[in-house]
Amino acid sequence: MSSTNRLTVRNDDDYYVTPHWVIKEFLEAVDYKNPDRKTILCLGNRILDPSAGGCANYEMSYPLVLNSMGHHNVETWDIREDSRAAKTCVDFLQTEGRGEYDTVVTNPPFSLSMEFVQKGLEHVSDFGLVIMLQRLNWLGSKKRFEHWKELPLHSVFVHHKRPGFNPEKPSRKDSIEYAHFVFCKSKTETLVPNLFII
User: Fold this and answer.
1) Which of these, 52, 85, 91, 166, has the minimum number of CB atoms within 10 Å of its CB?
2) What is the pTM of this model?
3) Are 84 and 65 spatial neighbours (Cβ–Cβ below 8 Å)?
């Protein structure tokens, strides 16, 4: 997912390589091992990346970084046949969630981002997390307004540096800021979203 005004050519399948530093920066901000953490989020023991990506030239970004930071329990799916995911040709939006994961984390196709959040909430257990990397302006638009009234947004971690999604041209940054949006499937409390700059 990347901004439409970026210097990178748009991919038909909306697949872009997520920069590892963006993921690492987010995880360091919430990791209990980091003394400078902004907050603590427990990712749990069952993690799913439903649009894991990867290709012949590049590793899957989230699983690689999560693994390097001690999370060796990431299940990987992708709709693309040429993905490096353990399960390919899986349309996440057509799966049936039974609350079987602690965390669903991914960089979803922007055009399906709300659907990915809703499906992710089906797949996580109570108090489970759904974490999505999105443009900061995802918070706006009439189309998404009603969703924001209902979705259990827990926190927003805004990245102070703009990422680029073309590893062949790492100096070319996107045209807009990005954030990791964290949703918590909570049935017993009203969530007041927290904002963090990382």
Assistant:
1) 91
2) 0.86
3) no
Sheet with strand 124-135: strands edge to edge: 74-76, 47-49, 101-106, 124-135, 178-184, 153-158, 194-197
Strands 124-135 and 153-158: unpaired
Are 130 and 185 in contact, with CB atoms under 8 Å apart?
yes
Residue 33, token pair as written in the block: 């091992």
53 within 8 A of 15, measured Cβ to Cβ? yes
Contact (Cβ atoms closer than 8 angstroms) between residue 20 and residue 61 = yes
Nearest CA to 106 out of 140, 66, 162 is that of 66
Instruction: For the chain, list the strands marked E by DSSP.
Output: 47-49, 74-76, 101-106, 124-135, 153-158, 178-184, 194-197
Q: Of 140, 98, 143, 94, nearest to 116 (Cα)?
A: 94
Strand, helix or coil for residue 109? coil
Which tokens sit at 100?
Answer: 């079987």
Going residue by residue through the chain, which has 198 residues, state the pLDDT in tens, using 9 for 90 and above.
444 444 444 444 556 889 999 999 999 888 655 555 556 788 989 999 999 999 988 999 999 999 999 899 999 999 999 999 999 999 999 999 999 999 999 999 888 999 999 999 999 999 999 999 999 889 887 888 888 888 899 999 999 888 877 666 666 777 789 999 999 998 655 566 788 887
